[in-house]
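Box S1 | Example of a co-folding query
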Amino acid sequence: MDRKLMFSSYNNAWCTPQPFFDELNKEFNFTLDPCATPTSAKCKKFYTPTEDGLVQDWGGETVFVNPPYGRQIKKWVKKCYEESQKPNTSVVILMPSRTDTSYFHDYIYSKAEVRFIRGRITFWDMDSEKFKQGDFSGMTPAPFPSMLVIYRSKEVQMPPKITYKGKSYTIEHALDVGLIILWYKDKEGCHYRWVI
Ligand SMILES: C[S@@+](CC[C@H](N)C(=O)[O-])C[C@H]1O[C@@H](n2cnc3c(N)ncnc32)[C@H](O)[C@@H]1O
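Box S1 (continued) | Returned holo structure for S-adenosylmethionine
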């Protein structure tokens, strides 16, 4: 691979395979891809290195992030965490599973849902001539494991425990003893009520 291309910010060597994205998109309905090029973008709304996704506002979006690899990944993970704290904002990151890094401990561990991917993903090199000609032969799985990091919008999270008449219930326990939870979302956020 051309080294200049590899280290340029427009490097599309580690693109998300479309079928992998499509499956995940069924669950999340993504609205923004903040790190992309017009060729590799996974959503209608996207940012390229020229617009710089790192300085944009992601508030109110459901964001899919397959960040540029290398040292800059730390900045992207921090940005993902910070943006996910905004109202009505969810962020899902597809990234190498490196649980010993400072950014994993600072922004992911115990702050996000993590799904470790079984096996290795064969990423798409969308800039390669072979790929452009539709030749998928010789593509090999990544030399690293991957994970999905999920920051769900606060507005759509069920509280882990609810207090009713001074007693604390987990959702499972409440259902066991016959309490029904009415849960709905509107402009003001997420609401829940007990129905006996
Ligand atoms: C791993 S690829 C992912 C591409 C695509 N989003 C996908 O999931 O297949 C990372 C992408 O980030 C883009 N990129 C690098 N720096 C960026 C920046 N500061 N702002 C927006 N995009 C950037 C690269 O051009 C590249 O397309």
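DSSP finds six helices and ten strands in the chain. Strands lie at 32-33, 45-46, 62-65, 90-96, 113-116, 146-151, 161-164, 167-170, 180-186, 189-195.
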